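Notebook B, p. 112. Complex prediction, attempt 2.
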Amino acid sequence: MPVSSSDLGYWGIPLAIFAGAIRNSTPFIFVSLGETLTERSGRINLGQEGTLVMGAMAGFGVSYLTNQQWPAIGQSMGPWFGVLCAGLAAGILGVLHAWLCSQPRVNDIAVGIGIMIFGTGLAFYLGKRFVEPSAPQLPAIGFGNWSNSEQVRAALKINWLFFVGVALAPLMQWWLKNTRWGLIVRTVGESTDAARAMGYSVNAVRLYATAAGAFLAGVGGSFLSLYWPGSWNEGLNSGQGLMAVALVIFARWNPIYCLFAALLFGGAKALGPALQSVGLSKGHYLFDAAPYFLTLLIMIVTCSASRSLAGAPGELGKATA
Amino acid sequence: MAPANATNYESRPTLVFRAKRMIPASFIDALIISTVALIISLLLFGLFVMCSGVSAMDVYWVMYRGAFGNAYAWRNTLIHAAPLLLTALCVALPARVGMMNIGGEGAVVLGGLIAALVPQMMPHAPSLIVQIAMIVCGMGIGGLWISASGALRQFRGVNETISSLLMNYIAIAILNHCVEGPMRDPTSLDHPSSWPIGVANMLGNIPGTEIHLGLLFGVIACVFSWVLMDHTAFGFATSIVGGNVRAAKIAGLSVAKYSLAACFLGGAFAALAGVVEVAAIHGRANDSLAAGLGYAGILVAFVARQNPLAIIPVAILLGGVTASGDLLQMKLKLSSASVQVFQGILFLVILGLDTWAGRLKDVRHAWFAKPVMWIFEPSKKKPITVGVAHASV
């Protein structure tokens, strides 16, 4: 049965929330998976916000420049090359974070705030020239092409990167649980003494974990500039990198739960725009704050003053001597 | 076996720098570290701008001229420094009880919002009363806002860094909601703002200058915090709570009370910065309140190593850097984000040099004394040290 957009009425709200959950959750999936990996090695990277913005800028810039340089392949390959470069640029910031944190007496949370300021500043500085132009975007699969309704078709257009993220979550879970490298990462995260006794360098393992985590955050950032909202400007990020840190706590450091938590957050983020799209624009700023409320609420409910959280890596948040 | 590197204190030179006795060694260390960090960051920033084809010397010169070059530049610098003095306290005071609070931005925003709201509540009151009410209400709300994240940490174990940051976004949403909805001035078309607070209710300048009263408030707040934290029983108790919670509990101190008090004070000061922004500069509340003053305050507090008195010179320095941003943009065509890049570099260098804190003597020994020793007495170079150091890890 053909459905026209006017027929949807209030049914547009759940549809818009579903579509928004998919779209908005993609960066959350990548950042939170990256942060899970970093935190499983016993270090918190609060700089994910900065690495995410850096990734968004690098991805957009590389996609744009590739298209300028080689128009023949720029449309198809440019965005994917951008995603790769976004990850690499973010990974460099991750290495910087890990190197600073490996010095004795350096606080990883404070360094995270530093990386956040530095990364956003650097991205704004280098990305000044990319504010105006538009770059080739990442392709999406249209699952809703059967429908006549513009709304349904737009809602069911799902980006490839989302599926990559969805596949990555169980993969990371398996990797952490069943491979030698996963075991090493977990050992370093649970007990540095045990890791040292086995002859592994704690700082080296954390360096790799932080760099890989930042790489994923950068990929998540490139989704922002290369698909949704799909342009580069200085108001692109809205705390996704930091919310991901809270999300990891909510997901109990489990990659599979991260996926579900990211979907939940994406849905919360879509609430405001969804209500706006059917004309309920009153107080939409308060709905925009829904994900932050939700995060805070979840943290209040799940945290406890008297015991450490189930699933938390043993070395997390401990001062390095 | 006797330890190989035991220091023979008797044979040390007797020449002693007398001033060290009056000035604590930690102060000298902090001064050295901060100065070295500033120099390193300036060098790195110079390299950075050279990569984009601008002479580093030009940048330093323009930064100096824009910040401290003449009376106008000084005025600009001090006006930029005023809110930083207050927002830095929002980081430094909770840091005393071991909390890393980054919620200053939210407190600034709420303070500004309250400052715009209060004059509407009391339209017929004399302006002095209105001003006092603005300051008291703003500080109260800001204090409660920050102590809320302190309380979440205290009673629920919620990480205060993350919760305070989330609350920033909530505060900004409240501001946007109010200035676009119930508090919107219908005449502010393209830039939604609250009603103006009225010329009579604006805070004036410091007598004899062209700098608003916010600077005075900031300096007073810093000196007050320094006296409170370093020279009263309250401050001492706070330091114990921050240093070792168990020791504090054994001594019978109420950890929650001191933690929340420190958070309240910090939040109140940050909110005062917001009140001043509205009541002395903008005249109305809008989204220009969320201009990153709270985040710049984090940087100031860290460079000042959480010392309230050291915040004053650091805030002036950082205010100068911000003030010179316009000139950098105008004269050298550098992007306005270059100031943020410099701030980021400075922050990371400061944190990296944290590793020196409290062991500067060892660092000096390792970097300077040891190489000198090796040059003059190569026979004393002990290759075995490498093995010893490895075993002790």
